[in-house]
Here is the input.
Amino acid sequence: MDSSKYVRYTPEQVEALERVYTECPKPSSLRRQQLIRECPILSNIEPKQIKVWFQNRRCREKQRKEASRLQTVNRKLTAMNKLLMEENDRLQKQVSQLVYENGYTRQQLQSASATTTDASCESVVLSGQHQQQQNPTPPHPQRDANNPAGLLAIAEETLAEFLSKATGTAVDWVQMIGMKPGPDSIGIVAVSRNCAGVAARACGLVSLEPTKVAEILKDRPSWFRDCRCLDVLSVMPTANGGTIELIYMQTYAPTTLASARDFWTMRYTTSLEDGSLVICERSLTSSTGGPSGPPTSSFVRAEVLPSGYLIRPCEGGGSIIHIVDHLDLDVWSVPEVLRPLYESSKILAQKMTIAALRHIRQIAQETSGEIQYGRGRQPAVLRTFSQRLCRGFNDAINGFVDDGWSILASDGMEDVTIAVNSTPSKFLGSQYGTSSMFPSFGGGVLCAKASMLLQNVPPAMLVRFLREHRSEWADYGVDAYSAAALRASPYAVPCARPGGIPSSQVILPLAHTVEHEEFLEVIRLEGHAFLPEDVAFVQDLYLLQLCSGVDENATGSCAQLVFAPIDESFTDDAPLLPSGFRVIPLDPKTDSSATTRTLDLASTLEGPTAGRSAGELTDTNNYNLRSVLTIAFQFTFENHFQDNVAAMARQYVRSVVSSVQRVAMAIAPSRLGSQLGPKPLPGSPEALTLARWISRSYRIHTGSELLQPDSQAGGDLVLKQLWHHSDAIMCCSLKTNVPPVFTFANQAGLDMLETTLVALQDILLDKILDEAGRKTVCSEFSKIMQQGFTYLPSGICVSSMGRPVSYEQAIAWRVLNDDDSNHCLAFMFMNWSFV
Here is the structure.
């Protein structure tokens, strides 16, 4: 047969070739010849023609896949275009509303200026009563808790309010930086502005059907890592085919310095006329009506304002999802320095809103087979490992009493908290009750934890360094002790050996999420014995590690490194006892008005904003970044070794804290240092004048020099010397009938107060002094005003994080301006240290 002629294959021949193609799309020459010999129906076909058939078959397969991919992209683009058009319509409505409100406000101002300003008190009261009559805000009527119709009325109100937030203009939404729409993006993400509580909104595309999406979103513990438990206490069907559920949910506190939250809510699931699914939720309170929730003891009751999910079917398959999360986290019950954690809509967006979208996209890609994992692990198993690591770490940080945790007495220093759990099966699960991790003759779990404030250290950068340079902070002996509990003869190492054994780590990737914001990996620690007595202690150790939040461009993202010892077998149900680090950014409040600033060095060190690019301003804000670092390490112990393990754990966490502080100082981009580079220290004339006033007033009142005398020193050098002074120097306002507020502190002062230049201006002098210090300042105040200065005895003050700080001596003096008038009050705390 002429191989150049076209060959028409019979159906039987095509079927035989297709079977081979399924097994091997690109057979070799020998395999093709073997195929002709073994298959008689192909005997009349030349090997070269069979080779051409396989080439054409591969080409058709490639074209089919490309056509399918383009169809998928086209569907995504069509759906995204529809989504963007709807978003554009919503923004136009918002603009129209703002224009109307602006015109109305202008009209009211003009009317007010035209009327007489000498109104009597009676007219003001009557005017207020008239305004209340014009804009009545009656509370929700109290519904009968046993009446389903009352609950349905609450549900319908919740539905209407949720839809107005998801697709309307009920909330002023501002798009988050970096969240650009596109066929492969996570979606459009926005946060609230000037809104009660914190709120976040997202809309995106997924390739799952609406019912599957609803099922995933309802299973909140599977994707919301801060969810401790979610109990559906009651389910009631509604006449329109929907369901009403009464839900009690508990969430973890993100750090040891705050209390956990719980929620009592009603969740309403229904369908709209266009076929969309809606799941909306709100808290049941005395104002909304409805049944009363379970009592709370160790939790702070927070509130879910109308929130939920709008899931719309997409043409050609898939869904368009609108998510709204709106919470009131009772910020006033939190220490002031931690309030940004509960006031930041960006943190809520990362923890809940974006997390939900990412989880759905992850499930969708796993279902479609787009993600392939190695090492023989199923995606669901790997997700379970990540969830268990996070949950175990959260349990350790919170230490709930109903899980069996109790606090041990401190050793006189409050920097490290030691908690003990003698019934670990309560929180680890009954399947670990017979594990070799816990001896039958008595033992438990001990957790050493601490929290601290970091300044000018990007959380992502710190966690990435801790992950890549474990030897900078970890001790191989402690890792060996933790791993000993997994061996057949546990507790072979009764306590960690001091001094440490050199080790190195090898990172073995297991899995990562779609956008690489989270990594699951196995760490092999290789010990190196240089002394004969170390040989018995050195062997390879294994950790299961989860790293997340290492993208420095993710706004409001929490960075976390959590790990747990495992053995070589590493089964799917392996017991995990997680330890690790969590760094959460404290999103500072925006200074709404630059004109309210006083003459202080804080404004100078922030630098002028005029003429700067957006990128420069962003970098400047990074230098004022504060974050909360929480460390928790868990160890198993035998009862008769509890005190030894507690002492070891306390000492080890203190050493880790010291190492992390050293690392943080090394990697922090020093704001002042960056300005001191090759250029002189920038500063306004007013700020340089203030630095000169501080130094001059000290010399006038005390007769000695505050800074190194230099006849040729310019204002820039004075400011530089003041900033780098070894003692903590700070200034506070000196105004009658107004509590003194700090307006400036040098670097040592900021370190002592554990704050930043921006947050400094929110700290009152009375808040940092203890009772004895306040009495001393009050008694010496007249002396300061008459003599110009006074020495204060040694004492204790408190940082903004609540940590006690001791100082050997302090001096207070009046800062005079060029007219010798009082400008502010300065303090210098000498030889200070944290207690």
Notes: The mean pLDDT is 79. The radius of gyration is 33 Å.
